[in-house]
Amino acid sequence: MKPSREELREALAEAERLRDQNADGFHIAKSLLYLARRDELLEELLHHVRVFTRFGMPPQEHAALLKLLARIERLDQHESEDDRRETDLFQAPE
Asked: pLDDT tens across 18-29, in order?
């Protein structure tokens, strides 16, 4: 069942709290935060695909799509220091 926006906001806030307090023994908070960020990126990808299917691929849209694909690929890479906060996972979109 899909959570409401408020429920999702509360769940993500709690996941961040658990991560910050190092109280995520089963990695549920870490997984939720990762999947939430991945969902954001995939929604952005869906937007670019919809534009492409309607209007073709102008050069600026093509460049934006390539940047987005690179961000998704970086998100999926396993980093040896995956608990650091400065990873691509938590950076603001370009």
From this structure: 999 999 999 999
